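Cast an eye over my tokenised protein here and flag anything odd:

===
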Amino acid sequence: MLKYYVVDAFADNIFEGNPAGVCIMDEWISIEKMEKIAIENNLSETAFAVKEGNAYGLRWFTPGGEIDLCGHATLATAYVLFRFVETNADVLHFNTKKINHHLIVTKKDDLYEMDFPTITPEKYHLTDLMVDALGAVPVEVLKTSRDLIFIFDSEDTVKNLTPDFSKIKQFPEGLSAYVTAKSEEFDFVARAFWPKINIDEDPVCGTMYCSLIPYWREKNGLDKMVARQVSKRGGTVYCEFCGERVKLSGRAALYLIGNICVDEK
């Protein structure tokens, strides 16, 4: 039996932000079993963590398979550990298993601050397929080693996009498609689409900000920004540019505690 939690990450209240499944384990189970648990949970990510020395090994699985970096499920895992396991700690270290990133989460009152690598995007070209898929024409297209980023000149355009997810799946590049624009109330707004791994829209995508923070910092000169993910559930992300690292902060709310009966017949 595995102890299982569901936490709404980047949420001021329950039913906001991005729900993540969290399994804190004594030892690793098979990748096949983690994949099946993620499919059964049917959340955008389920995180699995095992204590290894002074840090935690960490893996994330979507219903479509393992992913190399995930912000909201890291925040959710840290929330569970701070609240139920490492109750006297205010800093946690994670070593990721798919790609060897070292991640740090610091508890600051009710905020959880994550220290992640900066991912600087590069300019990319716009295609007719992209315009057809998104239903609007971006002013700029960027690309990281994993994802595509589309810059729009209107916050309302980002909020009102109704993409054709079957066409996004046809993009030859980009595991995900991020859209973003300058905001009046916040420093910028964004949305994240992941149909290639069976997640049409991620309610709040932490890793997206690893690439959006350096982009918007170059545009507005601000090292500290407040972003809003304008998905249906919505979520607020407090952002800080620190050179080769970025800091992402948010709140979390506990939704569920239970047991996964993986070994029962």
